[in-house]
């Protein structure tokens, strides 16, 4: 039976090609497109509908049938564009409402789906469990980061290499750190959602002071970050997403001093407050989603601006594969405006498992990513960061995530004479991070 249907579809297509130079008319296009739809000849239907539109013929059911053809080929982003065109003509059909909603969801355009669903019939809203304002998601994640070269690093005589002599030399070697994170998302209106995140980071370092003798102390950082990120859909598919990150904490360490002829060491603590404001905007154009972002950061009482441009591509018009090249620029008083970092992220769907990866390469010092959620405000610089995340759903509401991050870090051994820095020496290490988390789709 399937073979016979396929032969019929080919014959129809051949007849169309033979008559390609003939002028099509509405009744013929309606009849033929319905036959191709009824047979499930999705590729042939798309080709025929394209030829009809070249001749100026387009109507509600041709748009719907084109959308259904793309939907059944799993090309959800393209399908949603056709469904939305038909939706603009007639919003009364519940079956079209369902196609619009799920094609947007499956194409990665969630917020547009929530917005358009506000105009659905009560019956369809109940079927898809839609409410305009609700708690939509929550998540917990914890991670551990460590420096595998810590023992080798602290054994190196950086003081001797930097020529510390009788001066004061100081370095902080990362041992490890842990973090715990809580996420919360909710919709306050059909076109407005807000994401929140609260993160605690505890960092353990070993402080080395070369001052007459070699001295070793513990140095710890306790940091909190609160992140809030409203996402608004303007018009049909224009997104605007401002965000604010408030970062605060304290850094405890040891300093040396002189009292008369006696040298001594005392505990010190620095309380700090950092801030990052971001705003981004993007839209959807078929299989592409271009966007721009602006960030203002004030870290360690120093202000700077960061800009980025990106383009997300969905080659198969769905979430099975996507990638986003992104370029970052930075502006500050010391270096002016210029190129900063190149990054590429991407996702791959394999059955129920979703893989997400990231690669960054550039001059990452006080670097801002993910709309201000991830902020590199710790001492040191980085040239390269590689990360991979694996998401696995359990049931309809739960999703587990595991992440691995590898990043190189360059920090500085500093030499002081009478409180004035006279020399420095850079040292490098790699840090590795593992995280695990769970999220709830509410």
Provide an overview of this structure.
The structure is a single chain. The chain is elongated. It is α+β, with helices and mostly antiparallel strands. It starts with a helix and ends with a strand. The chain has 10 helices and 16 strands. It has 2 domains: 2-128, Tetratricopeptide repeat domain (Serine Threonine Protein Phosphatase 5, Tetratricopeptide repeat, Alpha Horseshoe); 134-441, Outer membrane protein transport protein (OMPP1/FadL/TodX) (Porin, Beta Barrel), CATH 2.40.160.
What fold name goes in the CATH topology slot of the largest domain? Answer: Porin
What is the CATH level 1 assignment of the largest domain? Mainly Beta
Helix coverage percent:
10-25%
Compressed to H and E, one letter per element, the order equals HHHHHHHHEHHEEEEEEEEEEEEEEE
Give the C-alpha Rg: 29 Å
End-to-end Cα distance, whole Å, is: 44 Å
Domains (count)? 2
Shape: elongated
CATH architecture of the largest domain: Beta Barrel
CATH homologous superfamily assignment of the largest domain? Outer membrane protein transport protein (OMPP1/FadL/TodX)
Report the β-strand fraction as a percent range: over 45%
| Tally of DSSP helical segments | 10
The residue ranges in which pLDDT falls below 50 over 5 or more consecutive positions are none
Quantity of strands, as a count: 16
Backbone structural class = alpha+beta
Query: Could you tell me the mean pLDDT?
Result: 93
Sheet with most strands: 14 strands, antiparallel
